[in-house]
Specification:
Blueprint: H1 2-7, E1 10-18, H2 20-30, H3 39-51, E2 59-62, E3 65-68, E4 74-76, E5 78-80, E6 83-85, E7 88-89, H4 97-113, E8 126-130, E9 149-153, E10 157-163, E11 166-180, H5 186-201
Parallel strand pairs: 4-8, 8-9
Antiparallel strand pairs: 1-11, 2-3, 4-7, 5-6, 9-11, 10-11
Helix pairs in contact: 3-4, 3-5
Length: about 210
């Protein structure tokens, strides 16, 4: 990470998400007995669908060579007693929400226990870091080399919104994409974060 901050030309794109529909969907899903879906699971699914549409963001950078992925193999930042590790959930775009939830829980549990195999925390195409559960609204994450980007996810907060010209009680979530400017330019990053926001604001598509 020290090399990342010194050698990678980071730039940041932040988007505010209207999270009202996302909150409503999660509430309905978790009303079903035996179902436990987190906001991070919902963001993971949306992220998987968005990454396969934006291969420049879903990529790794090796010197002068850029490798683009056609599957969303997402590294999930997990805090462990002696630091941080990023186990990988493969093919997220193809998984259901319950599969994502079970996969992330299993990886996180074994990460803390120190029982992950090396291939389970190497080779991801993109990383997500979520500090929302700690009450953090917004932050910039450091890119995890050789990946070209990382998404920082803040918590959902109550905030007024303007909806069709009317001021309403809203719920918002802030997302910040950190990108390697050698692999991703500003227009690509902006298109990616816009598509991700639109999917999270219309989350019924996450069930398809």
């Amino acid at each position: 990470l020290l090399e990342s901050t010194q050698q990678i030309p980071h730039f940041y794109v932040t988007e505010k998400v209207d999270a009202r529909a996302l909150v409503s969907l999660r509430k309905k899903l978790n009303a079903v007995e035996g179902v436990k879906i987190t906001f991070n699971d919902l963001v993971m699914k949306a992220l998987g669908l968005t990454l396969v549409r934006h291969p420049a963001v879903n990529s790794t950078f090796h010197g002068d060579v850029m490798r683009q992925f056609n599957t969303a193999d997402i590294s999930v930042a997990v805090a462990i007693p002696d630091g941080l590790i990023t186990p990988v959930l493969h093919g997220v775009e193809r998984l259901t929400l319950t599969q994502i939830a079970a996969g992330v829980r299993d990886l996180a549990k074994r990460a803390v226990a120190g029982t992950l195999a090396p291939e389970e925390y190497q080779g991801g195409s993109f990383t997500i870091s979520n500090l929302g559960m700690f009450g953090i609204e917004e932050f910039n994450a450091i890119i995890n080399p050789p990946q070209a980007a990382i998404l920082a996810v803040g918590g959902i907060k109550d905030e007024p919104l303007v909806d069709r010209g009317e001021l309403v009680a809203g719920k918002t979530m802030r997302l910040t994409l950190s990108a390697d400017h050698r692999a991703v330019d500003g227009a690509v990053a902006a298109a990616f974060i816009k598509d991700l926001r639109e999917l999270l604001e219309n989350p019924a598509a996450l069930m398809l």
